[in-house]
Input
Amino acid sequence: MSESAPTLLNPHDADLLVQHLSPGDCVRITTTKSLRTICTVNTTNLPTHSGPHLVLTAPPITTTAQDELQYPTFHCTSQPNSSMTVFEYTHTASDTTTRCIGSLTTIAHLPRLSTPAENTAATVEVPANE
Output
């Protein structure tokens, strides 16, 4: 299997999920109430009193009503013996909206889109005559 192919992860094993993902990883999630969403892992937290959880961020979107940028953040929290519940927090300059978008049904790691940990600088060569 190629390292650039998406890797399906088990959405029902929250402990293993947070150990497998790191900040900067790109993932595709689907929930019971939402279509596929491409996100970047912001934070992974190992089990605490409320269980393991992930914080994912999505690229900003523009609202049509206000032409205001929205910054969606997804908090995936877990309870013992259940799927992770996903809450969407949408931040604008004037408001923050929270809604539950269901249980995590699929999650895939997208290594080709993920930020490598070691070197994120791009090298660009431009000929002198341009």
About this structure: Residues 14-20 form the longest helix (7 residues). Helices lie at 14-20.
